[in-house]
Amino acid sequence: MISARNFLHVSRRVALAAAGCFFAATLAVAQSDALPSWNNTAPKQAIISFVEKVTKPGSGDFVPEAERIAVFDNDGTLWVEHPIYTQLAFALDRVKALAPQHPEWRETQPFKAVLEGDMKALVASGEKGLVELIMTTHAGMTSSDFQKIVIDWFASARDPKFKRPYTELVYQPMIELLAYLRANGFKTFIVSGGGVEMMRPWAEKVYGIPPEQVVGSSIKTEFRMQDDTPTLFRLPEVNFIDDKAGKPVGINQHIGRRPIAAFGNSDGDLQMLQWTTMAGGPARLGVLIHHTDAEREYAYDRDTEIGRLDKALDAASIAGWTVVDMKADWKQVFKD
């Protein structure tokens, strides 16, 4: 007959063992879900299925690790792009900071529009006006000086809606996705219409993507000796626009391999997804992030000047691309 003392001792051991099993099972479930901020809907399943196919040795879709290239647009795909692109917000702040040195700007467009807060007039200046703003505020200095200006601006600037640093307004589900792909042997690249030297100073800290894996638009740069110091000087001339049809060109020039997975959110990413997925061969993945969540972020697609998703959305159903409904497919948008 078991004593009361022994009974309590055995019961305690059983309880501890049961608790240990429960904890281990819970931990295993948690570890098995590499995308916890994604709802268990079709897009998450499509991504996981794709990764499993291309990483399984012996599979007809197996892709060697060296060829597992995934490319990501930045604005609207990895972080917020509304109400205006972050780089444009930076340029507007630079105009205001430099204005005391340029009194003529008060009567010269598009600078006059910026200083008066006249966004209608700024938009009316068109692409030419916006390029002039970028060239004026991003050039005429060394690359090192520009990098410092960028870092200082990101340290102090705040998004007008969320009142948070821009580098905190990255999408948590996409951060998880980047980590998941890298854990499965993928090399992840940013391929953005944004300025390459605007992104490189912070991309590794925020996304885990090193500077050499950032592809973007650029202005012309030349080597100069200044006070016996070798420098790279930024000129007010466009070198390369990494947007729309420019994205496949940028990928070819900078990466040298055709990606097997591409992620975007707008018509500016259409050609990148076409280049990635319409090549034949092993399994390929094209994904569009559809902004449908006006409460947690923004809702927009065809009727916007910023991040328009129109032609690419129509192409998705024909090409078989995965469309992520932000409201339905993401448990959360930003990291808490």
TrEMBL record:
UniProtKB keywords: Hydrolase, Magnesium, Metal-binding, Signal
MF-aspect GO terms: hydrolase activity; metal ion binding
Stretch forming the signal peptide: 1-30
InterPro entries per UniProt: HAD-like_SerB (IPR050582), HAD-like_sf (IPR036412), HAD_sf (IPR023214)
Name of this chain's protein: Phosphoglycolate phosphatase-like HAD superfamily hydrolase
Organism: Rhizobium esperanzae
